[in-house]
Amino acid sequence: MARIQHAAEICPKGMYEIDEETGDEKVPEELPALGVEELKSLEAWGHRYPIILKAGRCSHKAPTGLDEEASAAWAEKMAEEDKTEERFKALNEDVPIKGLETAWIVKVCGDNQ
After folding, report:
1. pTM of this prediction?
2. Has residue 109 been placed in a domain?
3. Is residue 10 part of a domain?
4. Nearest-angstrom CA–CA distance, 16 and 72
5. Of 10, 22, 32, residue with least CA distance to 93
């Protein structure tokens, strides 16, 4: 369930940002002014949460007891085997579903004021 939720919850790009001091997600002081036409584009949308790695976490954590060199080698190995992805990655960058051009489809419903 958590993998599905992390992969499927989306938000308009610029709606959230990462605080450089704490590393936490925050709402920026000035929100983007996006209209219906801008929101029709997959580039205008991004994943809200980071992906969940094969290890069950959102980031890699080196095992305890490793020296600095072994820890760096482990981190390099994990970066190859279980790659992390950029936070707020645009939807058009997702791997397409087999048989379709893209992983996401944009559809406008209702009143588009």
Report:
1. 0.74
2. yes
3. yes
4. 31
5. 10
